[in-house]
# Entry
Amino acid sequence: MRSSTKSRQDEYLARVNALYSDAEKWIEGTDLEVSRGTMELDEEALGRYAAPTLTIQDAQGKKVADLLPVGAQIIGAEGRVDIVGRLDRNHLLYLPPKEAGVRRSFKGMGEAGWYWIGETRLRRVHRLAQELFLDLLSEVSDYDVG
Amino acid sequence: MMWDNPLDAVWRQYEVTKDCLRVVQTSLDTNNEMALQGTRFFGTSRRESTDWIARSQEEIDDLTVLSLCAIFERRIITLVQGKGRGILEEPPLDLSEQVHAKFVDAVERWRIDDFISLLERYVGRDLSKDTRSVVAYRNWVAHRNPKRQPEKKTEPQTAYDVLTQFLDRIREL
# Structure
């Protein structure tokens, strides 16, 4: 495997792990629990590789939602993780800094990090933080996050 | 003299839509993210986007066959209804008007197969058969009846060619 490919995989995996660490902090104080797993990704330029998943469960062990990695090769972004519940799926995108290339035209962009885009045609992004994450979790699962 | 084919407008729109899909695919292939901003492609993986484009292409193929058949059918209905205008000249005129109105209404409810049978002698058996095949596929697209699955897909180009030939052969009637 070429070193640039490995390095892009590693960079993406580090960003995914950072997101999961944030998610674990954000649900502290709720009655939710998390567990990690892995799945295989297969991307055209990056090949097959293992990536971590995060499952969020309620106190009875019933699944509320999964955070599933989609890949690093994403149009307009440098990575994507989906938050998937029984009702819906939302895309979380890793966006580079505002100054980088064509992406600067999105409103709401600042430093590099994970963002949510509700409606792409509005060209507005929302930086992922605890309140937004818990709202998205409720939206995809209909679970009332206390 | 050039013939004003009523199917041409649909065909032009089909070609424009196909070109639009090709431009999007090229934007994906060349990483032209600027062109894709503010579209549904933003935030998708390359595989998802390519799959969407392929499915959209299949969908517009089917919808174009549907649309071509709709225009074809309307043109034939209008032709046959026009053949009933002679009724209006028969006295008493008030009765003729009512009979003509009934005829126009009845023709509106004919099945497309009835029109094809009626006109087969002017278009030939082979073209009549090909037209039925296009119409059968159109019915599948419109109703998705699993009991009437077509033997094969009708491509828009085939539908355009067959229906154009049919209309061409009856345009002097």
